[in-house]
Design brief:
Elements: E1 5-14, E2 24-32, E3 36-40, H1 47-55, E4 62-67, E5 70-71, E6 82-85, H2 97-107, H3 112-125, H4 141-153, E7 159-163, H5 171-188, E8 191-196, H6 199-205, E9 208-213, E10 216-221, H7 223-228, H8 233-238, E11 243-251, E12 254-257, E13 260-263, E14 273-279, E15 285-288, E16 294-303, E17 308-314, E18 319-324, E19 333-337, E20 344-347, H9 352-368
Parallel strand pairs: 3-8, 3-9, 6-7, 7-8
Antiparallel strand pairs: 1-2, 1-4, 4-5, 9-10, 11-12, 11-14, 12-13, 14-20, 15-19, 16-17, 16-19, 17-18
Helix pairs in contact: 2-3, 2-4, 3-4
């Protein structure tokens, strides 16, 4: 079977200044062709640096970058089968739509007839047929983004890099463009690598997500994996909203928090090991006082349109955020119910490699049984 890996980072470190901390620290990962990847993390985490390294705008300080199995550390940007859509789109204001899209083809000295055919096909692909004579200043934000994408795909790259291209759009248009970008990637069948700090955007669009913080990949996986099985406090807190409280692993399948013991689905941790407990707000159900697994008093409530966002405190002083269609009353005593599957136990300070080994050990143990 043909290897689907198109990009591979092996122990890549990037340091812009000898006196400064490394922007990327010993990063290794693989990118497969034909998928939509998202690099997600806060400002300064290293996600845009990864994009620049793939594009050839900068070189790694240490490690190797492979493209289709060949090292490309020092291959110039113009010799890579990669195109970038920048945050500000980087369109030429003095050129019309046609000439913006055709720019790369003219640099390659292609014949005019071939250029025209390719540009018209690209504009049709991004739903802009008939706009070729428009000036850039006459285009809306969403239309400009489509022009930038057309300019990228007209060169038939193997990878398209997108550096926060939706950040300047209003909420409604940004949501529309999320669907358009995802559908465009599926129709093209090529690899998209998308950079964002917006968690909802990453969850909605991606085949796989890399969560970065302080120059390291904290966790990688499908949106469902990342959301349902965060490996540490940073990922749990950064991806969506989470209730994170301290706990203690009593034994396999039993954990203690908020002064009580609960059945859970986690195993492989040490008895009495200190852990972090994560329960998502939507997994908490409000019950009558005395009818839940926990007792809590409502401290505040906000209406969010599709649900109420309720903040409450249990008897042990832990804060709980609840998303519920049921309205609560500030000051009332309520019960909180949750399933054992809703409890996610995280080993404190666990790395992705350690997490993967623990899951592998679970699997091997289950197979033996």
């Amino acid at each position: 079977m043909q290897d689907q890996t198109i990009i591979r980072f092996e122990h890549v470190t990037k340091q812009y200044d000898n006196s400064a901390a490394a922007v990327l620290r010993d990063v290794s990962f693989t990118i497969e062709r034909g998928k939509f990847y998202t690099l997600l993390g806060p400002s300064g985490c290293g996600k845009t640096t990864i994009l620049r390294l793939i594009a050839g705008f900068t070189e790694p300080s240490e490690g190797q970058i492979y493209f289709n199995g060949k090292v490309i550390n020092r291959v110039p940007a113009n010799e890579r089968q990669v195109n970038t859509v920048f945050q500000d789109y980087a369109l030429f204001p003095h050129l019309n739509v046609f000439e913006n899209v055709a720019f790369g083809l003219r640099i390659k000295k292609m014949k005019n007839a071939d250029i025209t055919a390719k540009v018209m096909d690209a504009l049709k692909f991004v739903n802009l047929p008939g706009y070729e004579s428009r000036e850039i200043a006459e285009m809306s934000g969403g239309q400009r983004q489509r022009v930038a994408i057309a300019r990228a795909i007209v060169n038939e790259p193997e990878i398209i890099l997108l550096d926060e291209p939706l950040s300047a759009l209003d909420l409604k248009l940004r949501t529309e463009m999320q669907y358009e970008l995802r559908e465009l990637q599926r129709r093209l069948g090529i690899t998209f690598i998308f950079v964002t700090h917006d968690q909802e955007e990453a969850l909605a669009m991606s085949d796989e997500i890399f969560v970065l913080n302080e120059g390291k990949i904290q966790q990688s996986g499908t949106p469902t994996d990342i959301y349902d099985e965060p490996i540490n406090r940073f990922v749990a807190d950064f991806i969506g909203e989470s209730n994170i409280v301290p706990g203690r692993m009593v034994r396999d399948f039993e954990v203690e928090f908020a002064g009580r013991s609960f059945a859970c689905v986690d195993q492989g941790l040490m008895p009495n090991e200190a852990v972090d407990i994560v329960i998502r707000p939507e997994d908490l159900e409000i019950t009558l006082a005395g009818a839940g697994k926990l007792e809590a008093r409502v401290d505040s409530q906000l209406f969010r349109g599709v649900h109420y966002e309720i903040c409450c405190y249990d008897d042990a002083g832990n804060e709980w955020l609840v998303h519920s269609t049921r309205k609560a009353v500030v000051g009332e005593q309520i019960g909180l119910h949750f399933d054992s599957e809703a409890i996610h136990v995280m080993r404190i300070g666990e790395t992705e490699e350690e997490f993967d080994k623990r899951l592998e050990a679970y699997s091997e143990a289950d197979n033996v049984e």
